[in-house]
Q: What sequence folds into this?
């Protein structure tokens, strides 16, 4: 079946560095991808929606200059956390959707655990 | 951001028991999804519902799309230890931008 892959699965870096997370749809073309953030013991909070070939739409309260999203192809979206700080430490999960996936409108990646020291 | 209310927040049950959980919203949705998330992993889709009143099963899992379109229910029959995890509902109203519930943490005692 359809699979969404995220990379890396875990990253630790120093405060002030930028971190890029990749989200790939492996066997389908994803016209739309979504980026979520999940803090420990909390639910998934939608950060932004990215559509291939156009600018991402950010949810209220999410800084677009801090969380850069690029959806340059139908199989790849990237989220870059710029100048990361400890409060950005979280579990970041992407999901992808293609109209062809029928009754499964969103497939999720396995997430990226980001730890900022 | 907006979240859906899930109930109960957590539950401990004995293996073999049935489980019921629900999700409520102040807004009308036209799609409801139920996901299960294991620690350190992404959510896995269990059941998708597209019509008010719809009742759909997936093995021991059964979910219903509430008639008011403001709620949904998930039942797990004859629970087993591997059912442990966090169950999330998600709703959408016309777009594929889903709002997630607060989650129900399930623990099964063998």
A:
């Amino acid at each position: 079946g359809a699979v969404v892959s995220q990379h890396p699965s875990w990253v630790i870096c120093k405060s002030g560095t930028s971190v890029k997370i990749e989200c790939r749809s492996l066997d389908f073309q994803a016209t739309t991808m979504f980026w979520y953030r999940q803090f420990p013991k909390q639910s998934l909070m939608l950060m932004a929606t990215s559509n291939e070939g156009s600018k991402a739409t950010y949810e209220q309260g999410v800084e677009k200059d801090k969380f850069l999203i690029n959806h340059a192809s139908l199989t790849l979206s990237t989220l870059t956390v710029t100048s990361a700080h400890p409060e950005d430490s979280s579990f970041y999960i992407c999901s992808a959707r293609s109209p062809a996936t029928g009754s499964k409108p969103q497939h999720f990646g396995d997430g990226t655990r980001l730890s900022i020291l | 951001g907006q979240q859906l209310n899930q109930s109960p927040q957590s539950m401990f049950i004995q293996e073999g028991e049935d489980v019921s959980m629900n999700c409520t919203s102040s807004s009308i949705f036209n799609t409801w999804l139920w996901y299960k998330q294991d620690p350190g992993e992404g959510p896995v889709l269990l059941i998708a519902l597209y019509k008010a009143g719809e009742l759909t099963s997936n093995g021991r899992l059964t979910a219903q799309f509430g008639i008011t379109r403001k709620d949904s229910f998930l039942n797990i029959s004859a629970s087993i230890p591997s059912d442990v995890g966090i169950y999330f509902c998600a709703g959408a109203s016309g777009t594929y931008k889903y709002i997630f519930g607060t989650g129900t943490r399930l623990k099964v005692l063998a």
